[in-house]
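Budget justification, computational time. The allocation requested in the original proposal was used primarily to generate structure tokens for proteins on the priority list. As evidence of use, we reproduce two of the resulting records. The first is shown immediately below.
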Amino acid sequence: MNAITASQSNIKLISDVASLRADIPALHQKIWGKPLAYLDNAASSQRPQFVIDAVSNHEKRNHANIHRGVHKLSQRATNAYEGAREKVRAFINAGNSREIIFTRGTTESINLVAHSLGLSQLKSGDEVLISWMEHHSNIVPWQLICERTGANLRTIPITDRGELDLEAFNQLLSERTKIVAIVHVSNALGTINPVKEIIDKAHSKGAMVLLDGAQAVAHMRIDVQELDCDFYAFSGHKMFAPTGIGVLYGKKVLLEDMPPYQGGGEMILTVTFKKTTYNTLPYKFEAGTPHISGAIGLGAAIDYLSRIDFNAIAKHERDLLEYATSQLSDLPGSRIIGNAHKKTGVLSFILGDIHAHDIGTILDQEGVAVRTGHHCTMPIMEFFSVPATARASFAFYNNRNDVDQFIGGLRTTLEIFS
């Protein structure tokens, strides 16, 4: 299949996701003389040529600052930037484009809510509820805010399978709970959490819910209105877009009441030395010159994803996960960390007493890219009593050859350490 061109106006739905591999230029190279098997998608996914071209075309022809310029380049850049906002709105089915805030990524999105909402709403004795499987970016901001407000941070435990303990969640949830901040899909375990059930129960107690969707948006359809979450955060670089661009969705009624997170240009209406009045949504939360080309790249990635059947993506990645799990389980000394009944394509593991970094180094020599370490989830490592894991993570462009190369690299690792 030919790579998509930016000039295409009619994008057709594609269910044969494996055929899209040709669109990803980074995959067609050799590492240490061997074909690249890129299995580090939970950290950062590779970009289609379509996205690269969209960013390149903007930088070559339309680079200018946005919103206030009257010249043609500024108008083009503004239209493309705001067009990307509308693409994001449609992609997650938000009710209004004003509910889409561009940020640097999931981390900044969560910090925005924690600082703006948390500092203005939380008080001593209130509770913020997170879980043991959270990424550090959904732990540390709430620790900081709880320390400043006197609120208490409570944690939902997890089971040996790497699933949330929902009975414990029900016991922890109370009228004191003001915010529930939970990961939609765990980056370290692959667990898909029952977020709709969590949202409904939290709302019944009057609590607001923020979902960390960084690992979800590229692998499943997200409908924020159906979920009824109050906030949803995600990053572009995990969904085939550039780094440094992300999104915070928030319900308009909540965002309007929240104070600005940062001060500067664009987020103001008037400034005097006596008083500043703030801009309307979404600009109240977008201080300074934004990552314009990043937003345009994110819009292009959404165009690309919108032509792929998400049911086909899910089936393809599930098949790869099952195949890799079966192959890995046959290796001596292997232990998979996270065996939830509902998982995305994340496979975290240890191999005997071989350190994860050694596994990753040898796999790299075999042309296989995986992630090693604690994956910014040190509480998970503590829970499973491991210092680190190696993690293979799949995207629609991976195939069984990648898995075979991965398993072959692990056999080489075992031979070296035998």
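The second record produced under the same allocation is shown here.
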Amino acid sequence: MTERRFTPREIAESRGVSIDTVRSWIASGQLRATNLARAASSKKPRWRVSESDLAAFEAARSNSPQPKPQRRRRRTGPPVREYV
């Protein structure tokens, strides 16, 4: 069975954003898409986004809590003797 592909319009409607927003994600490389236009030099691209690419995009933009950075311990050198 082949993987389902979505149009920018379908993505925009299901996510509550404009089509221009989806196209800007594609143009910036944030959302991976395939141009199915007949010629690569076509003035009007026909973008399709696979289910796996859409899932990867959403996972990258999820608001899951970031791991806390490890605290660096101070280096302790040899004890210092002071002579007065």
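A brief technical remark on that second record: Residues 1-37+45-50 form one domain.
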